[in-house]
Write a structure and sequence with these properties.
3-stranded mixed β-sheet, 51% helix, elongated, alpha/beta, 551 residues, 23 helices
């Protein structure tokens, strides 16, 4: 590495930061290797082929800073990571600053990937012209670290992502520490590792992981649409995508906004356009990945939704990446039919309300990973003042956590707050020599959840199912076995066991005197069907909501 080249590159980065130049350019320069400084040029090695292409487009900007620093014109020469066979490393073409660089075609290598327990993508070879105009093959290495790839591969195979020991700081990590947005990405709780998933949201989780992993691949995973009720983890997945890309692929420009931010930006920039005549929402259009949360709130805002539709159409037409979250499916949003069909053809994922097992897992993980460490002072916060009011360290047993899961609602944010409150009350009880009882937990739950202490009767379950599937009560509990009636009966039995405080013989008695083995068979039929039919998951969620409202 040329020390003079390093000094002038460092100064260039400082000047870029001084003038508020795009963070993506700063990060790419930080990851570039300064190779040589001569009287008329600076040569750097870009970290990837994507970075090479982007830096070539930004040469004019960089060369202006080089001239300002060196007090003379300097040409920027850019290479890519190379392993050249039979000769010296080729040099990137030094074209005039005003010319756009030629596209660099790539082809998949026939060489096998490096030997490892997890398959790593093989390098690709990019032809680059040398000064004579001939093509020379150079190896372009994959920029995804082995550890990050292992984690992503584990996620895409359906296994939980486990936290690993932090690696030594890289240039990218050091750069992130100097940029608030990237610091938030690294330390944010909204990561794939922190997301609790089960059958209710596994499809959405795996699709979000796949989208993030394929963000650099043109034409692959171009759209992801996640929908479901409020408080079920949609925003967590959207921010996990954003944070993963910010941390691992900072050269990809990501724009995240919730619906209110989008509307505010639209209104503000329309006003600016009238006075300054500039194009609006430039940062939305310039993004490589656009993420919009709670899109349903834009519906009805005539001007902003029309512009949003045009923006979506542009992104999908140009094969750029789009992530949307909503409380309902695309077909129920009143969007342009072309957009609806495109989102339906992409990755479309329902996030359902968590059942008992998932709520228990959420409560247990939050208690162990957040509530207990905070109570024990294992945080970066100066707790000299907080120590005087420490109240969150009460002990919660596994039995108490399971009881909390049984009586709680389904909103994940409320579940976490409920967990903190129970731990706090447990601490206060312990100070007086007593302990938190089931009745204490029930009392706290009543303040949080409408469903707490609601007694669900089997006749309510039966009437809601009968209305939903258009069968009579006599058919539902009777001996008839046509497919539509048998299926409605299976659903009613499954929901009765799930929502009513009844044993299998008690439920069987309410369905024409059937025995417990018939009840168990109905539960197995529905559980098997749930793994095959995403529509049934949505139907069961609708039925549960109706049953709770009628109880």
């Amino acid at each position: 590495m040329d020390n003079d080249a390093k000094m002038i590159l460092d100064d260039t980065i400082s000047f870029c930061r001084r003038d508020g130049v795009d963070t993506r350019l700063v990060n790419m320069l930080l990851q570039s290797v300064p190779l040589e400084l001569t009287d008329d040029s600076l040569t750097i090695e870009a970290p990837s082929r994507f970075a090479y292409s982007y830096l070539m487009k930004q040469r004019a900007v960089i060369e202006r800073y080089l001239e300002e620093i060196a007090f003379c014109p300097l040409t920027l020469r850019i290479t890519t990571p190379q392993e050249v066979t039979g000769g010296a490393a080729p040099e990137a073409v030094s074209s005039p600053a005003h010319q756009a660089p030629a596209a660099v075609p790539v082809r998949e290598s026939a060489q096998p990937a490096a030997s490892t327990s997890i398959p790593v993508p093989a390098p690709v070879f990019a032809p680059v012209q040398d000064a004579s105009g001939e093509n020379t093959k150079v190896t372009v290495t994959n920029t995804l670290s082995p550890e990050a790839f292992r984690r992503m591969a584990a996620s895409m195979s359906g296994h939980p992502v486990t936290a690993t020991a932090p690696a030594q700081p890289t240039v990218q990590a050091l750069a992130a520490n100097e940029h608030p947005a990237h610091t938030q990405a690294i330390h944010s709780k909204f990561t794939f590792e922190n997301f609790v998933y089960g059958d209710e949201n596994k499809h959405a989780y795996q699709s979000a992981v796949r989208f993030a992993a394929m963000a650099e691949e043109p034409g692959s995973c171009t759209s992801l649409f996640i929908y479901g009720n409020s408080g079920l983890g949609k925003t967590h997945l959207l921010l996990a995508i954003k944070n993963y890309l910010n941390e691992n692929k900072p050269y990809i420009r990501v724009k995240y906004a919730n619906s209110q931010a989008y509307i505010d930006d639209f209104i503000n920039e329309v006003a600016i356009q009238k006075t300054e005549g500039r194009a609006i929402l430039r940062d939305y259009h310039d993004a490589d990945v656009l993420i919009i949360d709670d899109i349903q709130n834009i519906i009805g805002k005539t001007a902003s939704i029309e512009y949003f539709f045009r923006l979506m159409d542009e992104f999908i037409r140009d094969n750029k990446k789009v992530v949307i979250a909503s409380d309902r499916a695309p077909k129920k949003l009143g969007m342009d039919e072309r957009l609806t069909s495109r989102f339906n053809a992409g990755m479309l994922c329902l996030v359902s309300e968590p059942g008992f097992e998932m709520k228990y897992t959420i409560l247990k993980r939050y208690y162990e990973n957040t509530v207990l460490p905070a109570a024990q002072g294992h945080t970066d916060v100066d707790d000299s003042l907080l120590g005087s009011i420490r109240s969150g360290g009460g002990h919660l047993t596994d039995e108490q956590l399971r009881h909390m899961a049984e009586i709680s609602g389904t909103n994940i944010r409320e579940l976490e707050s409920f967990c903190e409150r129970c731990a706090g009350d447990s601490f206060e009880k312990e100070q007086t020599g007593s302990e938190l009882t089931a009745e204490d937990i029930d009392h706290i739950a009543n303040e949080y959840f409408d469903t707490a202490h609601k007694k669900i009767h089997v006749d309510t379950v039966q009437s809601v199912v009968e209305e939903f599937y258009h069968v009579s009560h006599e058919d539902l509990i009777g001996p008839r076995r046509p497919a539509n009636i048998a299926f409605a009966r299976h659903v009613a039995v499954y929901l009765a066991m799930d929502m009513c405080e009844m044993t299998t013989p008690m439920v069987g008695a309410e369905f024409g005197g059937r025995d417990h083995s018939t009840v168990i068979n109905s539960i197995r039929v529905i559980e098997r069907k749930l793994k095959e039919d995403r529509g049934l998951v949505e139907d069961l969620q609708t039925l549960r909501n109706k049953i709770v409202l009628k109880s």
